[in-house]
């Protein structure tokens, strides 16, 4: 296969958007990615699968004169959301949608990988197609399995997130924190009931909760 062009990438993105899969169940996504990767020039590519994380994929690109190994990661899972966009390539899977842009992220990764399959980089590259970004910590699972060891250990790791608010061709970047994530924290406030006439003998959790939030 020749280098992926604009029309190829649009087709890939729309196909991925039509067939989203939830965390740890990205089997058809994995197969489609693998098929696309295997259609590229394999002269300096090495594809690796992880039996304990069967929907993940890694691709090693051997550099011509490597001084370091650079990692690039893309997420591949979708969200339990019903699509209502009305687009001609809307999700065909009921109740599941690529609502966070992972279809775009995968397409970008494939496009970059395609380029380097035809234009050997100086440094080594590792592409990580990560399952379960939205839940179940697919990246952490891969790390704890020891996936990123030996030649598969990158000196640097990069990724991106699409932002439709930026004009086409623009890249947003800054030092430090750029995006936010969510973490659940459970807090129990234990009070003491009492009579309204004797508030001094009670602990009102409504007041305590308001103070805690403030």
Radius of gyration: 23 Å
- Number of discrete helical segments: 5
Got a strand count?
A: 5
What's the domain count?
2
Beta strand %: 5-15%
CATH architectural category of the largest domain: 3-Layer(aba) Sandwich
End-to-end CA span: 59 Å
Secondary structure category: alpha/beta
* Sequence stretches where pLDDT stays below 50 over 5 or more residues: none
Q: Sheet bearing the most strands, described?
A: 5 strands, mixed
Please tell me what the overall shape is: elongated
Spatial sequence of strands, sheet with the most strands: 1-2-4-3-5
Which CATH top level class of the largest domain fits? Alpha Beta
Run of helices and strands? HHEEEHEHEH
- Give the name of the CATH superfamily of the largest domain: Zn peptidases
**Fraction in helix:** 25-40%
Mean pLDDT: 95
CATH topology of the largest domain: Aminopeptidase
Pfam families: Peptidase_M20
GO molecular function: N-acetyldiaminopimelate deacetylase activity
Keywords: Hydrolase
Protein name: Amidohydrolase
Provide a descriptive summary of the structure in words:
By secondary structure, the protein is of the alpha/beta class. It folds into 2 domains: 6-158, Zn peptidases (Aminopeptidase, 3-Layer(aba) Sandwich); 185-214, no CATH class. Helices cover 27% and strands 13% of the residues. It has 5 helices and 5 strands. The chain has helices at 6-18, 27-38, 102-118, 138-144, 205-213; strands at 45-49, 57-61, 69-75, 124-130, 156-158. The chain has a 5-stranded mixed β-sheet, sandwiched between helices. Strand 1 (45-49) and strand 2 form a beta hairpin. Helix 1 (6-18) packs antiparallel against helix 3. The radius of gyration is 23 Å and the shape is elongated. The mean pLDDT is 95. InterPro entries: Amidohydrolase, Peptidase_M20.
